[in-house]
Amino acid sequence: MKPVLGVGMVGHAFMGRVHSQAWRSVSAFFDLPVVPSMAVLGGRSPERTAEAARRLGWAAAETDWKRLVQRDDVQIVDVCTPGDSHAEIAIAALAAGKHVICEKPLANTVAEAEAMAEAARQAATRGVRAMVAFNYRRVPAVALARRFVAEGRLGEVRHVRAQYLQDWIADPEFPLVWRLRRDRAGSGALGDIGAHIVDTAQFVTGRNLVGVSALTETFVRERPLADASEGLAGGSRTGEKGTVDVDDAALFIGRLEGGALASFEATRFAAGRKNALRIEVNGSKGSLAFDFEAMNELWFHDHTLDGAEAGFRRIMVTEPGHPYAGAWWPPGHGLGYEHTFTHEVKDFLEAVAAGADPAPSFEDGLRVQRVLAAVEASAADESRWTVV
Ligand code: SOE
Asked: Which positions fall inside the Gfo/Idh/MocA-like oxidoreductase N-terminal domain (predicted)?
């Protein structure tokens, strides 16, 4: 009999639903040393939480996260709330001896992220593990891209071009949901999706950013207020308007360890782009290109080939030898967004069972948080702007 680890998850909106899917399916597809049991779902409203628990497959519902993290049937706490409560919940859970997986960005501020990383360091000395949930690392094609870079197939990395393009708030009448409020989300497109491309770029290249220079913009400064500002769509309108105090888009350049130049663009105003997380890496021996909107494909150009034969070729990342892919369908049948979360909890459970630190750690999450803060500081510093 494999040891069973009870999971207590806080939050049941978009991220809670997709994490539930991961916890529900992981043992059916991966042979793990431990088995997760979906012990309890946490949320604020008794009715909505009980209903979500029933629908998503949780054994119980709890309206007080402080009780949830103390429960004896909970060994893992999964934090799927907006960023303003990540630090409080994660730190309390670690102090209670529970392993923690926490949605991205790790926190809303560097100070909170520092406190979380410190709590994780302390907890690790007691065998308690913590991970920040940057799920796109677990797209098979992204993991394969990292493998190619690590194997030296690209040679010296010269350029990284990363974009995260969405369009779900392009309509000025789209309401002021929590992702557009600094007090809840910390920042706008920058923290919500820019954080993903910072992590993806650092993960694929194995190099951290050492400095940035940035522009941010808020295109729509007032939006309708909505009653229940949960989820992506928001609830019914109140008829009033509120001020948007976060960025709608962030554009920045940076330098990676080792000298590669990188550019980043995060926006929710790219009309027609739904979830285009893209990365291209150019090295001395070749290039890689990925777009989440075709997430089962990785494009590779081998620059050591004769020019007459060389050129980008498409690799369908669905072969048994590709990261994660062998656990699923026959070659060519493809995976979706939800699988990245299944891979995330698989890696987390394996690390917990092995007594190892999972990646990305809270320390990695803190490093991303420092990049976000540097981007905001750079964008606010108009003295660096050269008028033409
Ligand atoms: C909204 O922009 C969002 O749901 C992000 O919060 C997620 O992290 C991303 O995976 C999809 O888009």
From this structure: 6-124
Q: Are 76 and 96 in contact (CB under 8 A)?
A: no
Taking the C-alpha atoms of residue 385 and residue 378, their distance in angstroms, rounded to an integer, is 10
Q: Using a cut of 0.80, tell me whether the model's pTM lies above it.
A: yes
Q: Tokens for 81?
A: 């709330």
Q: Kindly give the pairing relationship between strand 130-133 and strand 99-103.
A: parallel
| Ligand 1 proximity of 192 Cβ (cutoff 6 Å) | yes
DSSP state letter for 56: H
Distance from residue 193's CA to the centre of ligand 1 (Å): 6
Q: Above 0.90 for ipTM, yes or no?
A: yes
* pLDDT tens digits for range 208-247: 999 999 999 999 999 999 875 455 666 677 789 999 999 9
Nearest to 281, CA basis, from 260, 305, 252, 297: 260
Q: Is the CB of 193 under 6 A from ligand 1?
A: yes
Over range 56-74, report the average pLDDT: 98
Q: Which atom of ligand 1 is nearest to the CA of 135?
A: 10
